[in-house]
Sequence to fold (77 residues):
Amino acid sequence: MKEELSIYYDKEGDFLEIRIGKPTIAYFKDIGNDVFERIDEKTSEVRGISIANFKKRMENLKPIRVFLQREEKLTAA
Fold:
């Protein structure tokens, strides 16, 4: 299944959000260093990431590393 990747940057708040698929009811889980996972409340799947202080981080050239685990669902043909 192909899903759209949406990227949004709030310049005033210096906040980057990368979302997978259509918006769902979700919560944010702090994974440290101003990085948050967007977790779907219904499925508990990671549906994106958010990064606070994005521009400040890029000016200092601090790398951002996020590891996402994605499970594929198989269907019978």
Notes: DSSP finds one helix and five strands in the chain. The mean pLDDT is 83. The radius of gyration is 14 Å. Helices lie at 54-59.
